[in-house]
Each structure stands twice: as C-alpha cells, then as structure tokens.
C-alpha cells in the first residue's frame, strides 16, 4: 500500500470518529457548553488540565483566537508536554499519588469554578485525583476521555476508579485502546493516533456551544480575536482589562 493510500485511510478513520462523536456525544456537548456558560455568567473561572499529549488539547482552548479568554491552563510542572527532559518523566509523573492535590492547593482554583480534565485513558493517578480533589473543593468537572479504557484496562489509582467516575459531565472521544487507527502487515505495531484531533474538536464544540449559550442570555461571550487581524490587539486588551480577575495566564 502506498503512502498516499495510507494518508487517505487515516483521514477516513479520523472523519469517521469525528462523525461518531458529533452524533453520539451531542447531548454531552450541549450540557458541557451550558455548564461553561453557567460558570462564566456566575463570575466563575475556567481551567483546563491535561498531562502529556492530552495537555496539547488543553492548550488548544487557552489564550486562543476565537476562544474564551477566561480559560486558563492548570499546569503540572513536568507533565505539560514533551518539552520536559527526559520526555518519559512526564509519563512517570502521571502515576504519582498526591501530586494533583498539591497542584490544586497552590492554584487559584476555588469553589464555583470549572475544570476541564483531558485524559485519553483516564486510568492514571494524576487525572483521577485531579477530578476527585477538584470536586471536593467545589469545582464542577468536565472530563474528556475514552470510556473504552475503563473496560479494557486496569486503573492505576488506588481506588480502582477512572476519570469518568469523578466528573459532572463526561465526553467520550470514542478512541480505541492504544490510540492507533491504522495497521499494516509489514508494520509490527498499529500506528496513526487520532486522539488529538478528536479531543480538540470535542473541546472546540463545547466552547462554541458555550459562546452561543451566553449570547442567548444577553451576555457578550468574552472571546479573543486574532492578533494578526487589524484591531485584534485592541479588542483583546479590552477583554483582558474587563476580566483581569479571572485571567491568570497574563499574571507573573
């Protein structure tokens, strides 16, 4: 099979997953968007967390042109992405008990806020405890995960539970265990992951729903504009000033 044919197969697989998520998670997306809008309207703050490659999806909705300005990244040192050296350290940190609690306690997150937690497997201690601790502090939690992992893998948290067990709303990415969409007789391992594409699309659908829900209530959604269009910086400066007490990625 040629490389171009494999490329087409991957697009087909990714499109199929996106269509599944669009159709099967529509109710959850609507509920999650409403919860985000409720939090903004109640003057709460928004946070997103993901470890390793799941952090890329979290970063996709933080300080994003066309996105909600109030979404802040809840970063765990060493677990934000592959910039940590060695990269394998990030994977190890996901299994450390107690780390999530320490991060939350030192963050500005408080009761009435909302936390989006992204974890493909949802089985490691870090995302499980992040959800547990966040809800104990009075935050609402939206989890984005592949529910299949809960039936096909063993939890790595002492409770035996998964991220999906500790969220107010769960969005299922439908990604198969192993996160690889293609196989080939001449390649010894499955390849071509699609979780990043699907998870990012899920989150953007939630943010779009939230913006519409706020507008329906007569509330101007606190959106950012691209700095590469005329007037973008001026627009963003106004938003930053108006919501300065709920935006933490501009503070030192």
Write the layout of secondary structure elements.
Layout: H1 3-24, H2 26-41, E1 46-50, H3 54-60, E2 71-73, H4 88-93, H5 99-105, E3 114-118, H6 125-136, E4 140-145, H7 148-152, E5 169-172, E6 182-184, E7 187-191, H8 195-216, H9 232-242
Parallel strand pairs: 1-2, 1-3, 3-4, 4-5
Antiparallel strand pairs: 6-7
- Give the CA-CA distance, first to last residue: 52 Å
The largest pleated sheet is described as: 5 strands, parallel
Task: Count helical runs.
Answer: 9
Q: Could you report the average pLDDT, rounded to the nearest whole number? A: 93
InterPro entries: RpiR-like_SIS, SIS_dom, SIS_dom_sf, SIS_GmhA/DiaA_subfam, UPF0309
Family: Belongs to the UPF0309 family.
Protein name: UPF0309 protein ACFPH6_46930
Pfam families: SIS_2 (PF13580)
Task: Walk me through the structure.
It comes from Streptomyces xiangluensis. Residues 36-220 form the SIS domain. By secondary structure, the chain is an alpha/beta fold. It is 43% helix and 12% strand. It has nine helices and seven strands; from the N terminus they run H-H-E-H-E-H-H-E-H-E-H-E-E-E-H-H. It has helices at residues 3-24, 26-41, 54-60, 88-93, 99-105, 125-136, 148-152, 195-216, 232-242; strands at 46-50, 71-73, 114-118, 140-145, 169-172, 182-184, 187-191. It has a five-stranded parallel beta sheet, with helices on both faces. The chain has a two-stranded antiparallel ribbon with strand order 6-7. The protein is globular, with a radius of gyration of 18 Å. The mean pLDDT is 93.
Question: Which key phrases capture this entry?
Answer:
7 strands, five-stranded parallel beta sheet, UPF0309, SIS_dom, two-stranded antiparallel ribbon, alpha/beta, SIS_GmhA/DiaA_subfam, 12% strand, 252 residues
């Amino acid at each position: 099979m040629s490389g171009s044919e494999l490329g087409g197969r991957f697009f087909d697989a990714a499109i199929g997953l996106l269509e599944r998520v669009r159709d099967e998670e529509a109710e959850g997306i609507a509920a999650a968007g409403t919860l985000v809008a409720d939090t903004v309207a109640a003057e709460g703050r928004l946070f997103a967390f993901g470890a390793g490659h799941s952090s890329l999806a979290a970063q996709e909705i933080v300080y994003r042109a066309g996105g909600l300005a109030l979404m802040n990244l809840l970063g765990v040192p060493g677990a934000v992405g592959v910039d940590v050296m060695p990269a394998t350290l990030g994977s190890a940190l996901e299994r450390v008990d107690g780390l999530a609690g320490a991060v939350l306690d030192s963050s500005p997150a408080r009761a009435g806020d909302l936390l989006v937690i992204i974890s493909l497997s949802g089985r490691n201690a870090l995302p499980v405890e992040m959800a547990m601790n966040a809800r104990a502090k009075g935050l609402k939690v939206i989890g984005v995960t592949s529910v299949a992992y809960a039936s096909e893998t063993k939890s790595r948290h002492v409770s035996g539970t998964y991220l999906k067990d500790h969220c107010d709303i769960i969005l299922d990415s439908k990604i198969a265990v192993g996160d690889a969409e293609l196989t080939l007789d001449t390649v010894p391992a499955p390849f071509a992951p699609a979780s990043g594409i699907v998870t990012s699309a899920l989150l953007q659908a939630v943010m779009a729903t939230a913006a519409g829900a706020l507008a329906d209530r007569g509330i101007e959604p606190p959106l950012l504009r691209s700095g590469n269009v005329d007037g973008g910086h001026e627009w963003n400066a106004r938003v930053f000033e108006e919501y300065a007490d709920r935006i933490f990625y501009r503070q030192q």
